[in-house]
Design goal:
CATH superfamily of the largest domain: YerB-like
CATH class of the largest domain: Alpha Beta
Number of strands: 20
CATH architecture of the largest domain: 3-Layer(bba) Sandwich
Largest sheet: 13 strands, mixed
Number of domains: 2
Helix content: 10-25%
Number of helices: 5
Strand content: 25-35%
Radius of gyration: 19 Å
Structural class: mainly beta
CATH topology of the largest domain: YerB-like fold
Amino acid sequence: MRKYKFITVLLTLGLSVSGIFGLGGSVNAASGDSPLSGLPGGEGRPVVMVKYGNSRPDRPHYSLNQADLFYVEEVEWGLTRVAALFNSKFPKFVGPTRSARISDLEILEQFTKPGLAFSGANDVLLRIIRKSQSVSLSPSDRSTYYFRSSKKSAPHNQLLKLAAMMATETKVGAVKDIGLLFNSTPATGGVGTKTFSASWASAKVSGKWNGKSWTIAFDGKTHKDAKNGRLLTPKTVVLQFVERKTTKFGDKFGGKTPLLKSVGSGRAIILRNGQSFESTWSRPTDSSGTKFSFNGTQMPFDVGQVMIVFIDGTLTKAPIKLK
């Protein structure tokens, strides 16, 4: 990521970072960097979405802390799953992988031939995936690279050898710019915020500012990587309020799958540098990227991992807390 020395100079003159960002002080990821995180090494490389389970038996996850960008999505019964995008690095193991959902495909329409690694889906959704622009990387397509861990029971134990698979993969397309801006200069103008949480009927995600990033917990338990115990610490967290629609999809127990509309516009709360910024988001079309704005100008994220939490924007009272 480029170092914007002129920003530092202007800051000494008392000018706000948000104002400078609005004048072009922040740009899209620098040459060679991932357009999903601003981290080095992503430009021109493939992008793969890995669908993680996120119920208690699925955790702890393998290598989620190495994703460039990940989404927390509501699924059936008020539970959540995680859709993680890998680009700047492909870890040795990821998972446990679980089944795809219709919301994943709308996210992936921002890219050209993105990879989608998942454990399966119902027949109707599988046909939609096959017809989409995404490249299916399920066990049916890449069985050599999937295996079951003896440390968990099925269906919560299916892992993927992501690095080995991507070393030979030829069908997945290169990552695209999806409209995000990055700048490591500390942002100003927000409200001091040390903790946040978002809740659903059967799940909760929360975070605590540690001075450098947000330490994430699921269902009240701090997340530690299954392999090395490292914490999950995104630099930027976005609470994105989206339209929630009921769909024809569901699980075998009768649970209905919601569609979380990432195309459209609405409210967003951006959390970075121990502050919250009441913002807006806009994604006009399926193929366009998403623009996040604060005080009328596009808001840059900190360089590093990004976490986006989809919140039901149709609720009268948002199920979130900021302190």
